[in-house]
């Protein structure tokens, strides 16, 4: 598999000192499918100046939002041999803020993270605080974002390692996010297994139980935790090269389509991301081929 | 190998009605590595109005140029079990024009085609007739061309099937070029074999002999003629899909890096091409992987 290593991956995620031109963004980052962090990308957003937990309470405290609730902070992760989705609760945003500010308790770990364009769908009061898209990215990609998502959660809330078919522009407004990334070319070293899908259910006494979905269709997911990889079980992962970066308030991470990512955050971090559908072009063919080869080689 | 077919290849080379913007050129053609023909791309070049065989004689008839001479029109092709380079002659351009216009005879087939930026190096008198580069392409690619080549030859002069590590902007000024193209994803179906290198030598009596090079290093080359493929010998080629196109005066073919191409022309066709070094990015990794797999599979 030495040939796979020809895709050069930098030792760290590079920084840009400001937004790139649309052409430079496409040529230097999107087309070669490489991540970068753009500083001073959100300088003119009112959200960068205004957003804080008290501001969110004032602006939208009474608004009900979808909240993912898990016993340990891991939504969409492998637990007990199943692929377990979070319990989903509808709570006033103010209730989530109470928990984040230590004024109230709630069982488990809370994460406002519903990826259905929840900023537009659930928190319209916040829309005036930021542009509806990232103009240089929209011009570069020749399209508007498919979704604009709002993220707010506790320090323990984690997004488990996975990848998406989206060009992802991840903007931190307050606090910081910590990303652990793997390029798509690490696919042969990242294990997938099939798991029966299940969902956490929050009982009335505040305990969690795992309830199997009715479907018999199993879900391919990554059982490995990159923060504590079980190398005895997944020795191939030792050949993967994780790229770590911290994205701070005012910065924008360009997270290229099909890159694996695992995400942690500071307590109460507030972020917004823009998802643009990827082009199913050469890079897609390339990574599909890698995927097929990995399976054909019986690596997983 | 069905998975290779995921790279969608159009049934014909698409036309653009005018030069694209640099961003559109990069996003829609360079990044996905797809060819297109641009109409009205050379409208403002004096060369398009002026260049003809009599004009070339008037402007540079006395200038010596490098001319590839072969017995059958095939330069850089497999003949007699060898990879045979053309005889190279230095002739006044007027002498080549005499042959093209039927006023004089010369053994073999002549082709002014030296790809060493021969327009700049050998025919500086023609430089004022065209821009030094293609601005929208240079801006898109973020660099200037590595070479600007001038092409003039007889109807029998053929460029055998091969590929280059260049983004190629091929501009026809007079007459027409006929391209037969294969996408890089056809690599598994296109045979390569190793051949001892040799060169044609033109004897005093006008005959050609093949003279082996002193090196013992063999050259990988494509023994197949796509105009008359020997499918009994190379059955895999029946799975390849040739794209054919004719590029007429005033049109520019964007021939993407790593695409296989075989080229014919009308008698006395005059053309110029710009070679921009390719980016060794994802597409390079992808096609290198295809190359490695093809070899590993023993396909050739």
Q: Which helices and strands appear, and what pairs or packs with what?
A:
2 copies of one chain form a homodimer.
Chain A (H helix, E strand, L loop, with lengths): L14 E2 L5 H9 L5 E3 L7 H5 L2 H8 L3 E7 L3 E2 L1 E3 L2 E4 L1 E6 H8 L8 E4 L5 H5 L12 H7 L5 E7 L4 E5 L3 E9 L1 E7 L10 E10 L5 E5 L6 E3 L21 E6 L3 E4 L4 E6 L4 E8 L4 H15 L4
Parallel strand pairs in A: 1-2, 4-10, 6-13
Antiparallel strand pairs in A: 2-17, 3-7, 3-8, 5-6, 8-9, 9-19, 10-18, 11-17, 11-19, 12-16, 12-18, 13-14, 13-15
At a glance:
Chain A is of the alpha+beta class and 300 residues long. The first copy, chain A, is 19% helix and 34% strand.
Q: Give the strand order of the largest sheet of chain A, numbering strands 1, 2, ... along the chain.
A: 1-2-17-11-19-9-8-3-7
C-alpha Rg of chain A (nearest Å): 19 Å
Low-confidence stretches of chain A: 1-6
Oligomer category: homodimer
The H-and-E topology of chain A, N to C, reads as EHEHHEEEEEHEHHEEEEEEEEEEEH
